[in-house]
Amino acid sequence: MRNEPKLLNFLNADLTEAGCDEAGRGPLAGPVFAAAVILPKDFYHPLLNDSKKMTEKARETLRPIIEKEAIAWAVEEVSAEEIDTINILNASIAGMQRAVRRLSVRPELLLIDGNRFKPMQGYEHQCIVKGDAKFASIAAASVLAKTYRDEHMRKLAMEYPQYGWERNMGYPTKEHVEAIIKHGYTPHHRKSFHLKQLEPTLF
Fold first, then answer.
1. 203, exposed or middle or buried, with CB in 10 Å at 0-12, 13-18, 19+?
2. Could you give the CA distance from residue 149 to residue 160 in angstroms, rounded to a whole number?
3. Residues 17, 21, 23, CA angle at the centre, nearest 5°?
4. What is the mean pLDDT of residues 120-139?
5. Residue closest to 4 by CA, chosen among 137, 146, 132, 138
6. What is the dihedral of CA 121, 149, 77, 133, to 10 degrees?
7. pLDDT tens digits for 20-35?
């Protein structure tokens, strides 16, 4: 069996780089979370990968390690209400930009997961498709964004237990869709994300 290729530590060895990623673009409910992380150039951990390819236990193990060893890191959330106002792509970009601005160390280059970003004055950026599986800093950002979002959804699930958010994290699973049909929407649902089969139950 082929091994996963090793994550790259940087795109440019001479620049301070921040990896940026988000979690939660597809769910029907909850915020999108975004993270920016500046790692030491020699950072390595065998568990680090694209967060989607990691187990929940591995992500939770790595989160405090990343927070401790990173040169700087920040996590931001963008609410369902704002997602409905500016759309999910713009919300994801806004979240990453806010996280970058909160970093205690100013990066010289942003490594952005995906193929879309809006330029930030004073920052260079490079979009990298599937960057969370290629660069350690983006992978680290994906871990922080995912773990912070999952933690948030578990808290919301205690307030709205009928939707199973502690299991589905707001994604359109059969359980979640059936709960919306039965109980309706909550203030945490994204109005712009409703499914056609749910139109009779809309807000």
1. exposed
2. 16
3. 160
4. 97
5. 132
6. 10
7. 999 999 999 999 999 9
Sheet with 17-23: strands ordered across: 72-78, 32-38, 17-23, 109-113, 124-128
Provide the b/e sequence for 70-100 (b: ≥16 CB within 10 Å): bbbbbbbbbebebbeeeebeebbbbbbbbbb
pLDDT digits (tens, 9 = 90+) for 61-101: 999 999 999 999 999 999 999 999 999 999 999 999 999 99
Is residue 8 within 8 Å of residue 131, measured between CB atoms? no
pTM of the model: 0.93
Domains and CATH numbers, the chain: 17-201 (3.30.420.10)
Q: How far apart are CA 34 and CA 24, in angstroms?
A: 9
* Residue 62 contacts residue 25 (beta carbons within 8 Å): no
